[in-house]
Amino acid sequence: MLLLGRLSLPRFSVSRPSSLREAVERLSSGEGVYPIAGGTALIPLIKKGLLEVRELVDLSSVRELGAIRREDGRVFVGGMVTHSELVDAAPWGMRNVLRDFLRNHTSPHVMNLATVGGSVASSTSSEDLLPVLLAADAEVVLAGRDGDHSVSLEDYLARRGSFRAEIVEGVRVRYVWDGWRFSFSKLSVSVRRMPAFCVVVGARVSDQTVEDCRVAVAFADGLRPGRLRDVEDAVRGKRVDAVRAADVEDAVRRSIRPAGDVHFPSEYRRKVTSRVTALMLSEVLGA
Ligand SMILES: Cc1cc2nc3c(=O)[nH]c(=O)nc-3n(C[C@H](O)[C@H](O)[C@H](O)COP(=O)(O)OP(=O)(O)OC[C@H]3O[C@@H](n4cnc5c(N)ncnc54)[C@H](O)[C@@H]3O)c2cc1C
Which fold has domain 13-60? Predict the structure, then answer.
């Protein structure tokens, strides 16, 4: 029994609020209360007995969380938008990256259930969407008892524990990426295992000079995804022919401290992430 884990779920209650305010109230009602979106991460945790749950707050009837809308050069994507809906519905300039994100998804079933809010709240390296959102300058919109506020996704990931009593209402990402080229790459060997790496790189080149760039990886620090600003700073403003892949590789290697596991030791993740990022950057720079 211990080895197999629980075959059934323990007892808990489920509330189904129809508004964001009501959902926030339920979430603030005490210990052991968690929001549930697609359930793809949460239900396995409960089944394995890794989370004591008194009440699940089912977000599926909260209309505000299903929205996708344009707002002043950005697009708002509600927390209940699924991975597959995100790619179909959000026409921003990173479409190739989103298509590759879906193409590399380990499970068609999961991609139709898993949500943007669930990925953000999970905040771990197994969420391929996080490097995509980091590269898209995402802001997380949060709803709590004191009202709504937003923080950058980088800040959210760094201070995840501070936002536990809040609902991820959605993310705002930059909509227009004229002149940018992006690339997505991931290596996963099994649906049950963390990927070896997941990297998103983007750059805008003008007159053979790197005007701006983005480098985001799934394993930046332990199991935390992150944007590699030192690497971006080292490349920004350089002529394309002065960006050496070996220097980029070295800069990435110095910027990350990935977690390791039995399949992919930390040093392996570090090497492969550095090498792949350097190759991807050369590709988007057209070097
Ligand atoms: C077999 C399998 C394969 C997978 N393959 C991939 C893959 O290829 N790529 C990938 O990126 N991911 C993959 N995943 C991971 C999965 O897609 C994510 O964990 C998922 O994004 C979580 O979203 P969810 O809606 O299911 O969240 P849930 O499981 O419902 O919740 C996850 C956590 O987020 C919290 N939460 C959910 N919504 C909100 C909200 N709006 N506000 C605040 N907190 C919230 C919950 O309380 C819980 O703590 C896979 C998972 C499985 C089981």
Answer: 3.30.43
